[in-house]
Amino acid sequence: VDDKNLTIDNFESIAGLLMNTLHGITNLQLAPFGTVHKIHPLVNLHQDNRAAIGHALLLDPKRKAGALATIESQSIVMIGPLKLKQGGFGIIARKPIFTPFASKLLPDESWSSEGVTYTRVCSNVTHRNDEVCSFPGPIENGTQTYFWGFATMLTLIPDLLRPLMLESLEEKMALSKFVSFKYQLRDTTPHSSMKSVGGIFAHSAFAGPEIVLESPVSVKISVPEVEVEWELSLSL
């Protein structure tokens, strides 16, 4: 990010190059000041992300705490699986960007959802809350940096799980004969948007979140480095 907005102006070409080089990415996003402005691809045969444009992460009460925690960490944070604004389930890797070219204060902004409007006022000293208006970053070459926004990588759950071919469990498995399994994959520490489905973000055709598997065999999937604590359960 520089003072000439070259990253924003050339976002589509940069994002396209990254996605062609690094496989498994569903889309890439830029959110200046914490509000989504750029998504690549915006629309294609497999996704329509137009509903996510304008999503103010620092105003949305369902996303605000996570967004603030990411800024505070000053590092890449993985979020999810979670329900997405544009539909479906996904995993988000979000990096806060700090630069000396960012303004000290975030702009005034309003964002509405479900008939409620959320507002941030930073230009008025009387009404300003510095805790949500200014985010100093690390010192670079003797210059104070400030939060510019987020760079985000999103992977939809089907794209993430496709190499595992979990659907083969419900189609066939050669033992002494062909056997069909039911399976559920769940997050044992689910995001708030997933608690209503018990953290289950992938399952076979007849084993939705409302189904309790009979005598399942379960295996833990743990990757502490990215805070992954999942459980795969199989049942006949």
Question: How does this model look, in words?
Answer:
Helix content is 17%, strand content 34%. The protein is α+β, with helices and mostly antiparallel strands. Strand 5 and strand 6 form a beta hairpin. Strands 1, 2, 3, 4, 7 and 8 form a six-stranded antiparallel beta sheet that branches. The chain contains six helices and twelve strands.
Describe the structure using short key phrases:
alpha+beta; six-stranded antiparallel β-sheet
Task: Quickly describe the structure.
The protein is of the alpha+beta class. The chain is built from six helices and twelve strands. The longest helix is centred in the first third of the chain and has 11 residues, at 11-21.
Counting copies of identical and different chains, the oligomeric state is single chain
- H and E string: HHEEHEEEEHEEHHEEEE
Shape: elongated
What is the typical, i.e. mean, pLDDT?
A: 89
Number of strands: 12
Tell me the major beta sheet: 6 strands, antiparallel
Share of residues in strands: 25-35%
What is the C-alpha radius of gyration, as a whole number of Å? 21 Å
Helix share bin: 10-25%
Number of helices: 6
List the helices and strands and how they pair.
Elements: H1 6-9, H2 11-21, E1 27-32, E2 38-40, H3 64-73, E3 77-83, E4 89-99, E5 109-113, E6 116-120, H4 130-133, E7 136-140, E8 143-156, H5 157-161, H6 167-171, E9 182-187, E10 200-203, E11 217-223, E12 228-235
Antiparallel strand pairs: 1-2, 1-8, 3-4, 4-8, 5-6, 7-8, 9-10, 9-12, 11-12
